Amino acid sequence: MVAPMTSPDYVPAMKKSAAIITDQGGQTSHAAIVSRELGIPCVVGTEEATKKLKDGEIVTVNGEAGQIFMGANVKTQVSEVKTDDKPKYKNTKTATKLYVNLAEPERAKEIAKKNIDGVGLLRAEFMIANIGIHPKEAIKRKVQGKFVEKLTKDIEVFCKAFHPRPVIYRATDFKTNEYRSLEGGKSWEPVEPNPMLGFRGAFRYISSPEVFNLELQAIKAVREKYDNLHLMIPFVRSPEELAKVRRLVAVEGLFEKASFKFLMMVEIPVNIIQIEDFIKVGIDGVSIGSNDLTMLILGTDRDNSEVAQEFNERTPAVLWALRRVIRKCSAAGVTTSICGQAPSEYEDLVQKLVRWGVTSISINPDSIDRVRGVIAKAESDF
């Protein structure tokens, strides 16, 4: 598949693709994230693939090296490919939990068989994109029951496969441009100049509680069978927002069972600055979304290939932010995790996170055994 850029509504087509090529994007773009989970070769940020490649042409894609060759069966050379090539760690256990980032129900059983402690990030967007209809449109047509039923069924697949290991469901974090691609979406969504910083996250749940309630109904239904499902709130702009969302969750009765965990994504600078105030609202844990956090700290668009080289999760400012959150949360008895792309890429960052006392690290499925080994070595070094 060749496209200017991908979004969640592209996922059905991406599943059928032998490889993915985009004009725009970086290593944390939608195309890169999805292709890693699906195990499909991908090259992003080519700038002109849609202009140079034509329908029907055969190409060979080397996703590891970022190369595209005309023709089939082209011999490519790959150096230092980061794969799970350390079988000696496949049964290793570590004090630092190792979680996995997932989105596709079809992969749940397969991944659950690996040496993994749970799902640290279950992305709602892919499941809702598969449902296809905008939630407000579903409510308007009085088919919200089917919406909840389908979402419940998909979430249940993960919880059953991983039980009793935890599954952290991140509430829907579609941006308005992504919501518009759903059936009926154009009738409900504004056209924003900058959706990344627009109508999304916690503010959206507060503004449209009837939509958020559909997700809460699904979570409650799944938890009647599997108590390993927990909820994480993304893109929270203030402690006040978090408190309002927490009340919505409480109304649905999810806090009635002590086993339920309520978590928050840390992905905006305000989450770092006011972490102690967010903790006071009442959270059981946080997960650092290093992709968005790095972008917003450095002022670098992670999906813009023009400035992709400036996107660096290991700059002093980002490392300071990670360390601050881990230490403040640890002192308050709040668990910490990180679910961005960085831990899957950089072993030195994993070592720092372990040294600072992070509770868990959530990574891509293709990095499980390798990162487990890095964690084990880091723990043995101190």
From TrEMBL:
Residue intervals of the PEP-utilising enzyme C-terminal domain: 82-379
Sequence similarity: Belongs to the PEP-utilizing enzyme family.
Gene3D superfamilies: Phosphoenolpyruvate-binding domains, Phosphohistidine domain
Names of the cofactor(s): Mg(2+)
Residues that span the membrane, as ranges: none
InterPro entries in alphabetical order: PEP-util_enz_mobile_dom (IPR008279), PEP_synth (IPR006319), PEP_util_AS (IPR018274), PEP_util_C (IPR000121), Phosphohistidine_dom_sf (IPR036637), Pyrv/PenolPyrv_kinase-like_dom (IPR015813), Pyrv_kinase-like_dom_sf (IPR040442)
Protein name (database record): Phosphoenolpyruvate synthase
